[in-house]
């Protein structure tokens, strides 16, 4: 395979953002069409490893090192999740998740644009972000440590098809500013005796989407913040692929009150 296709809104913004040889260069004027701005990159990335189209195409949004991104990709590669990683989206040009994607020839997108790009009139608007994902035939979205607000247009386009991971047992220890070690520090300071990751659907309200899956780990009185973070991260790498697998397999159903439930693979039992 050739250089990683990096999607951008103009020659200027592409060069400023990624400095990567595989940029798909297009002009500033958007052409919203199934055969429009992003078609070259979409064509390059729209088939599975066996060359056949894969309907379960996933975009993963990251802002940091990307350990959950890599866990999701590994589960796709070993067949635990019946899906293909279509694109990595990030606000951070040099974060570990983006560098890993480029090393593995996975397309990347930047969102939101920098202040300078906005001033220059280039970069992805929320509407063009949706167009870009549509061009890549993305059917599901995973937020794996993405530290920017998700625009309403994306929430609406991927309603009940977009998952976020949070490093505590929501609804506790959630909300604005609660991410990473700030969450674990709050858990330790509270004296809570259990914590763990939560997978929930994404809505326009921050950390308020319905919970799909959780895992519980102990918090000991002698634990440091790092102790708790390490314990929770191990479970994150298990529960995120598990939840995504259920979603792409069509094993998620919703109660009348909107609460989701997962059907086990081997029968009619519910988790």
Describe the secondary-structure layout.
Elements: E1 6-7, H1 11-17, E2 23-24, H2 39-45, E3 57-62, H3 67-77, E4 84-90, H4 96-103, E5 108-110, H5 115-120, H6 126-135, E6 140-143, H7 152-157, E7 162-166, H8 181-190, E8 194-195, E9 198-201, E10 211-214, E11 217-218, H9 225-249, E12 252-254, E13 260-262
Parallel strand pairs: 1-2, 1-5, 3-4, 3-6, 4-5, 6-7
Antiparallel strand pairs: 7-9, 8-11, 9-10, 12-13
Helix pairs in contact: 3-9, 8-9
What does this structure look like?
The protein is 33% helix and 17% strand. It contains nine helices and 13 strands. It has a nine-stranded mixed sheet, with helices on both faces. The protein has a two-stranded antiparallel ribbon with strand order 8-11. Strands 12-13 form a two-stranded antiparallel sheet. The chain is globular, with a radius of gyration of 19 Å.
**Could you list the spans in which at least 5 consecutive residues all have pLDDT below 50?**
1-53
Q: Mean pLDDT score, rounded?
A: 83
What is the end-to-end distance? Answer: 41 Å
The overall strand count is 13
Structural class: alpha/beta
- Fraction in helix: 25-40%
Share of β-strand residues: 15-25%
Query: Radius of gyration in whole Å, from Cα?
Result: 19 Å
Oligomer: single chain
Biggest β-sheet, characterized? 9 strands, mixed
Order of strands, main sheet, comes to 2-1-5-4-3-6-7-9-10
């Amino acid at each position: 395979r050739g250089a990683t296709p990096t999607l951008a809104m103009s020659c200027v913004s592409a060069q400023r953002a990624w400095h990567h040889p595989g940029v798909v260069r297009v002009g500033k004027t958007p052409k919203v069409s199934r055969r429009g701005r992003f078609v070259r990159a979409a064509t390059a990335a729209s088939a599975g490893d066996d060359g056949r189209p894969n309907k379960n195409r996933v975009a993963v949004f990251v802002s940091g090192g990307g350990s959950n991104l890599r866990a999701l990709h590994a589960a796709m590669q070993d067949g635990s999740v019946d899906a293909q990683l279509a694109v990595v989206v990030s606000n951070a040009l040099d974060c570990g998740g983006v560098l890993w994607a480029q090393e593995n020839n996975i397309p990347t997108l930047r969102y939101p644009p920098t202040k300078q790009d906005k001033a220059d009139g280039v970069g992805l608007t929320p509407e063009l972000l949706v167009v870009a994902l549509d061009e890549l035939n993305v059917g599901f979205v995973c937020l794996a440590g993405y530290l920017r607000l998700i625009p309403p247009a994306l929430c609406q386009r991927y309603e009940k098809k977009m998952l976020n991971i949070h490093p505590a047992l929501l609804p506790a220890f959630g909300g604005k500013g609660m991410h990473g070690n700030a969450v674990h520090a709050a858990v330790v300071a509270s004296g809570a005796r259990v914590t763990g990751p939560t997978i929930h659907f994404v809505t326009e309200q921050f950390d308020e989407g319905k919970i799909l899956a959780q895992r519980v780990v102990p918090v000991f009185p002698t634990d440091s913040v790092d102790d708790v973070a390490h314990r929770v991260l191990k479970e994150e790498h298990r529960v995120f692929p598990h939840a995504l697998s259920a979603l792409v397999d069509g094993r998620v159903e919703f109660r009348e009150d909107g609460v989701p439930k997962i059907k086990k693979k081997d029968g009619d039992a519910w988790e």
